[in-house]
């Protein structure tokens, strides 16, 4: 008999220790070590000593056929996966509780089942009656999806091995699964890793695509060992704010497609509705004529997206002013504020700064620097920005506006939504960037020029007169003059 081996495994990152300690040295979390028996963590068939077999080695030269894909019937979901589900692939989908993961998968599996594919939905958290109630609420109760409420991985694999191989299997969720090969409670790091390994082995052997639903931590990371994210073929995050109706599916990892695409959905009473034009949705509730708002022309994958950036700069009575940002990088905001003060003379040390990306979208590209700076200066000097203008450009530490990629696509989307002007880097003006798009281009070379143009149109709150200076930093923004 194998000797029992006890170890203390971190429930946050999966690191193992031979004794208990309060803090995990790998992830830095406190009180996350739990005692687990790892003597049976490896199946007997793998532990048995056998002679290895030889296998053939291939060269880099040669042609490989494209992996066949199975369309989900939802354009936005197929966009994120790279065109559909690949046979034998395993996807891990995470998201906050109640964000709509089960609703999205119920709609996708119902459409695929109606197309004639064998689809199996295994629920480890809900009873079959609860899944049926959701399908009835979504108007999908007539879809021939095969349901089951089971948590034993061995029973699931044995059942799915009989008859025709399913084209798609949904496991909701992986934290509720358990296997006989390990002696740990369901949800522990050892059980999650072993259960995922067994399901991945079944997918590669049979060619069935599997979607694993994963819980997330309070920081938004997928709970359980990080090794599971390395084992699967794709990791997708379903994001959104509870107060917003928008839902965004983003690929964090994808071996069969791009990782910078997003799918946009709108939560309605009848489930998730695909949004084919996210820009129109994000700009539908714009407050025209308000200082501190600028429209950013961004790129998410291959899709141009226009979104509104909102800024509020207010005097503070605190010793340390607040810097709050939602939907953008905090470090990026600090950099823009430093450049504004160092090169443009904009004194913000006595003001609280708040920046928000409207609609719940999170922006990752540095091309939003110019739009953020324009919104900040507009709020500070109480100047209204043109409502028919879009902004994009990266700000360097020297105050120079750097060019960004895919300028024609950004301008084309702006024209489609009725915008007439675009403020963009000087180097992006050449060529056919916007000449045939019908846009009036305002090319700026430095952030100082942009600040001067905005400040000349506004006044600080309470000021009666404002001196206007063209193509120069206004006197009230110069260093040493407050």
From TrEMBL:
It comes from the Bacteria. Residues 352-482 are annotated as: Lon-protease-like. GO terms for biological process: recombinational repair. SMART domains: AAA. It comes from Bradyrhizobium arachidis. Belongs to the RecA family. RadA subfamily. This is DNA repair protein RadA. ATP binds at residues 95-102. InterPro entries: AAA+_ATPase, DNA_repair_RadA, P-loop_NTPase, RecA_ATP-bd, Ribosomal_Su5_D2-typ_SF, Ribsml_uS5_D2-typ_fold_subgr, Rubredoxin_2. SUPFAM superfamilies: P-loop containing nucleoside triphosphate hydrolases, Ribosomal protein S5 domain 2-like.
